[in-house]
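cron nightly-structures :: item 1 of 1
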Amino acid sequence: MVTLDDVRRLATSLPRTEEHLIRERVKFRVGRIVYLALSADETVMGFAFPKEERAALVAAEPGKFQMPRPSDERFNWVHVRLSSIDESELRELVVEAWRMVVPKRVAAAHLGPGALS
């Protein structure tokens, strides 16, 4: 199972990321845009994800992924149970969420030009 420390290590290695504690929940953001947030008990991570693709993601693996609460469905957001993923999958989710909120040139500089295709 991945932990907050694993999430923190990955997120803080990405350019422009800042960690904040908001209402006793750890959140990672670029500027004012939150792209990762952990539940208060640190068992569920919300992350930026395209709205048009999340229903398929949740339907494909309902034991792993969850829709956001109804009030958050207007955002590009989905949840994952941290006990259901390994570090490799965590890295993919964190990096892709981060890519949604940074300028393409920042992502290309950090990941390499071929990573944006």
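cron nightly-structures :: done
The chain has a mean pLDDT of 93.
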